[in-house]
Design goal:
By secondary structure, the protein is mainly beta. It has 4 helices and 25 strands. It has a domain at 7-19 and 35-222 and 234-264 and 271-316: Methylamine Dehydrogenase, Chain H (7 Propeller), CATH 2.130.10. It has helices spanning 7-18, 21-24, 273-276, 359-364; strands at 35-41, 46-51, 58-63, 67-75, 97-106, 114-119, 131-137, 141-147, 168-173, 178-183, 193-197, 202-205, 230-231, 244-246, 254-261, 277-283, 287-292, 304-309, 316-326, 331-340, 346-355, 367-377, 384-389, 403-409, 414-420. A hairpin with a 5-residue loop joins β20 and β21. The protein is globular and about 60 Å long. The chain starts with 6 loop residues before the first helix and ends in a 5-residue tail after the last strand.
């Protein structure tokens, strides 16, 4: 089946062809380079990939044919049926690894592209549990999809899995293609979903009551901020709408969202709430942004704290490592990010936020942000749309702290497994 044509994706591809890679590389001087271990051809374009938070050797991928595919990262000596001694809760050693297909769920019409996914947390995961994903579609829909347990085992299913009734609950719809969604961390005061679309809209909605059955408590809709770019009162006769949406921040389609929490050394002071939660966003406008979470809740809309141009559309953002900064007279946060920049490849970026000295910085938690690029990977012949790194832990890298990373592309239809050298923060 031919890949459906989507103007927004083609526009980004044309921009990449008009901006040769050697021009993008001019500002890059680091000697850090990746080592590609495996390239795996797949029968579809892939726009998003994520390792399971509870089964960290299982990888889920969205496809251009309306399906969700799963893979296992296992020792290369494993058989072609993807069965091995590796358990779903343990990552194998970083040496001699390979990706092996598990199964594909034909969840939607084959002409629909599944553009993003985000795993929901599971309170008591087992090898045979089903799992739920927040997903977005090129039809603009944002919703919750339930995966059957067959996609999570380590036994391969060569033929696509079909089910009579796919469990997909639509939360709301963007006016154009929905490109990304993320589930807010469970420690945040409001549970819910953020999403972005080709309409340049950043939107938020609380989870429905049904979300309680997948390990995340439901939340009442927060009151709408009077300063919201768009407010959406609820009416039974209308299609589902987000609690709020914002079209002012991004100069093009919203393609990446990553919530982050910062442990503050003075957690008993409620005034620190706004400083301890923020989220990163990416867009077709080639810009990585750090956005505030006013009052530490999702009641009010965000504002821009920092921006960084990356020379390519910022399609996805993942954290490789992060740490808090604490000294006698200040505090802050630093993180090393894995950023998928489409026609500019995958990049490693460091961000740092440090509270200003004096009462203003320390008591109000006002952070001054800086950022810099420290590395990149350009194995894909077309565009790099998403990357994910294996979960950190005792088996997450070698003695040098190297990380195993999987990246995907849409037009050259392959997954790449590569090792990223440890870089200082």
């Amino acid at each position: 089946m031919a890949t459906p044509y989507y103007p927004a994706l083609q526009c980004a591809r044309d921009i990449g062809q008009a901006c040769p890679r050697n021009e993008v590389q001019e500002s890059y001087s680091s000697s850090v380079h990746s080592h590609v271990i495996q390239t795996l051809p797949v029968p579809f374009g892939v726009l998003d990939i994520h390792f399971s938070p509870t089964r960290p050797c299982v990888l889920a991928a969205t496809t251009s044919t309306g399906s969700i595919a799963t893979y296992v990262l296992s020792p290369a000596s494993a058989t072609s049926t993807a069965t091995s001694n590796t358990t779903p809760s343990t990552f194998p050693s970083p040496s001699h690894l390979e990706l092996t297909p598990i199964a594909t769920l034909q969840a939607f019409d084959p002409t629909t592209i599944v553009t993003s996914l985000c795993w929901f947390p599971s309170p008591t995961p087992t090898a045979t549990d089903s799992a739920s994903l927040a997903v977005t579609l090129t039809t603009g829909e944002v919703g919750i999809l339930t995966l059957p347990s067959a996609l999570l085992t380590l036994t391969a299913h060569p033929e696509p899995i079909t089910v009579d009734d796919v469990e997909f609950e639509i939360l709301y719809t963007h006016s154009l293609e929905a490109w990304v969604t993320t589930v807010l961390p469970p420690e945040w005061p409001h549970s819910g979903i953020l999403s972005g679309g080709d309409d340049a809209v950043l939107a938020y909605a609380p989870l429905p009551p049904s979300a309680a059955s997948i390990g995340t408590p439901p939340a009442d809709s927060p009151p709408i901020d009077a300063d919201s770019s768009t407010s959406h009162p609820s009416h039974a006769s209308q299609p589902p709408l987000p609690a709020w949406s914002n079209k002012r921040i991004h100069g093009a389609g919203v393609t990446a969202i990553l919530p982050i929490s910062i442990p503050h050394p003075r957690v008993n002071n409620s005034s620190f709430a706004a400083a301890t939660r923020f989220y990163l966003t990416g867009s077709y406008d080639d810009t990585l942004r750090i956005l505030s979470v006013p009052d530490g809740t999702m009641v009010r809309q965000p504002r821009v704290l920092h921006e960084m141009g990356l020379g390519g559309g910022v399609w996805r953002i993942k954290v490789l490592r992060n740490s808090t900064i604490r000294t006698v007279d200040t505090w802050g946060f630093s993180a090393t990010l894995l950023v998928s920049c489409m026609y500019a490849g995958a990049k490693v970026v460091e961000i740092k936020g440090v509270a200003g000295k004096g009462d203003e910085g320390l008591e109000r938690g006002v952070l001054e942000w800086t950022s810099r690029e420290v590395g990149r990977m350009e194995e894909h012949e077309s565009m790099c749309y998403a990357c994910d790194a294996q979960a950190p832990g005792d088996d997450s890298g070698d003695r040098n702290g190297d990380r195993m990373v999987v990246s995907c592309s849409f037009y050259d239809k392959r997954l790449c497994l590569w090792k990223w050298p440890s870089v200082g923060t």
